[in-house]
Write a structure and sequence with these properties.
Two copies of one chain form a homodimer. By secondary structure, chain A is of the alpha/beta class. Chain A folds into two domains: 10-131, SPOUT methyltransferase, trefoil knot domain (Alpha/beta knot); 148-210, no CATH class. The first copy, chain A, has helices spanning 16-24, 30-33, 41-44, 69-78, 96-99, 119-131, 148-165, 173-186, 191-210, and strands at 10-12, 36-38, 48-54, 66-68, 82-86, 104-107. Chain A is elongated, with a radius of gyration of 30 Å.
Chain lengths: 212, 212
Amino acid sequence: MQNFGYGVLRVVNPYQVAFREAVSAVSAAPLLQSAQEFDTVADAVADCSLVVGTTSIGHRELQHPLKLLAPGASIIRRTSGNVGLLFGSEKFGLSNDDLSHCHWLMRIPTVDQSRSMNLGQAVAVCLYEIARSQATPTEPKRTRPAPMRDIEQMTQMLLEASRRSGYMNPVVATSTENKVRRMVRRLNLSARDVSVWMGMLRQILWKLGNSK
Amino acid sequence: MQNFGYGVLRVVNPYQVAFREAVSAVSAAPLLQSAQEFDTVADAVADCSLVVGTTSIGHRELQHPLKLLAPGASIIRRTSGNVGLLFGSEKFGLSNDDLSHCHWLMRIPTVDQSRSMNLGQAVAVCLYEIARSQATPTEPKRTRPAPMRDIEQMTQMLLEASRRSGYMNPVVATSTENKVRRMVRRLNLSARDVSVWMGMLRQILWKLGNSK
């Protein structure tokens, strides 16, 4: 919840021993410490304008419209007012009584053989999807591509190394040259990388030159 | 992993006590029981054609291209061959050495105040996003990417050439090694090109060896 910027956690009728222990732990997150406790689902969602239940079951609850996470999340994002996202216990999910407080149900698309998810993971996936287009993606700056001048210079150095090392067969030199030239261009080198490559090749050439 | 249909779990150098206990537990999932164990990241990703590291940090690792989860997942879906998704320990994340085996890094978009995620939740969110729309329009066939085994072999040959030619300063050898490793991965070599490169480097190494 914290990772995706959601701050209001409400628990309904929790198992008191475990809940008290978790809330009062030294390492308890502020979000957990400020969790609000309710006796009934009705109380917990009283100030919500939309209540969405989560289920892994699929087609059993015919009483409720069922949406997959992505289209469901898109409706949630566009809803004004508080939205309550209701999760059941890990073992039993939501009861029919719980479900009766929901406008509709939402399901994370999983493989059919393994539908039931870990509760914390299900919450994380739902909130990721709901938050996804809030955060405008700030892509890192693309690296500057190397100018062809440098690409060709690197090609020449590589060809020279091939000659000095005996890799290139003089009989098919032209075809090998073209092959190497195309190959270097396929690398899509950045300006920064091409200078590292040239530094390396320069040193190799110097050493190969010495050995002639 | 099971929820989203992914079946191959590989662990690198796990804490043996906890790992043995988890795998041999009566309730252990088949996926965990069949987890493969490796000593090094290089071995674990040897048959992958793309290796993606995960990070919560954002802008510290300037050495690597960083993508947000959604655009990153879209690339992963379109990649042919095995894709390795690399997660670090919950406490420390991935080391610089781990990162040097990655082509690029991926980040789950979180709020700035709370970037570090629970490991299981981070895995769930990543796999949900990667699995979300399998039915993407089929891309034109790309050339077959080189397996990481070959990429690493080429890296080792290039490093050896750097040593023999005197390019590599022994004082900063580790940092140079990581730099070169990252650089080779940025080339996105095809299976065919990598064998040409290795042929060239083999010949250069032979000649450099002679000159010692």
